[in-house]
Amino acid sequence: MLNFEELKSFLDEKADQYNNPDFIENDPIQIPHRFSLKQDIEITGFLSATISWGNRKAIIKSAEKMLDIMGNSPYDFVMNYSEKDLESIQDKSIHRTFNGQDFTYFIKQFNRIYNENKSLEDLFLIKNSETNFSHAIERFRTQFLGIEKHRTHKHVSSPYKNSSTKRIIMFLRWMVRQDKRGVDFGIWKNIDQKYLSIPLDVHTGNISRKLGLISRTQNDWKTVEELDLIIRKFDEKDPAKYDFALFGLGVTKELL
Q1: pLDDT (0 to 100) of residue 166
Q2: Which residues lie closer than 8 Å to 93 by C-beta, 6 or more apart?
Q3: What parts of the chain have a pLDDT lower than 70?
Q4: Could you please report the per-residue DSSP string of 160-225?
Q5: Cα separation of 156 and 172, whole Å?
């Protein structure tokens, strides 16, 4: 086992290694990188993150299918779609259990949200007493999904139900985190990146346990908070940079 300083040095080195533009090519983050308009980046980022489970190539292909349906102008499509447009999507297969009904539901919710807000950032703002995104994510879920139950609700996870909310946490990293490496966008200026967590999945969870960063065996919200405690000691201003290290080590199987 490495001591604190050795572990920090190792993870800093790995974060530096994997946090570069080469990362974009094989990752779903490449989808929002095709756009420059803030709302286009938000919509495609959220959609790509939402379907981010399974093989990364398949995720990218499915995201491209959604882009194609929206005529490669996501914000314009969301604000100006016709009922006929939505009808043609309903029965389409999109990505695994995320289907045409889910996609049309998201489109309608985006339309409502953007008629009330300029940016999705407004729905994720952190309050003074908060130390992470758990309450902000829950507020977002309430505003985005509404009260009426729908099958699509299962695609937007809840930390209140002890989900790791990996896909939303990843989306937040993309939008909030600012550096000069060119991978993350950092277009949300009203949220401090110190509140970000690591998107916890099989890769980051297994590597974190291997390195002794966490002891819990489940990949759930409690484990996200356990991991927060240590990575924020490594870098309290930019804890989410270690996602690159943990994910990179997991994908390359360097530590196996």
Answers
A1: 95
A2: 99, 100
A3: 147, 256
A4: GGTB--HHHHHHHHHHH---SSSSS-----SS-GGG------HHHHHHHHHTTS---SS-BHHHHH
A5: 13
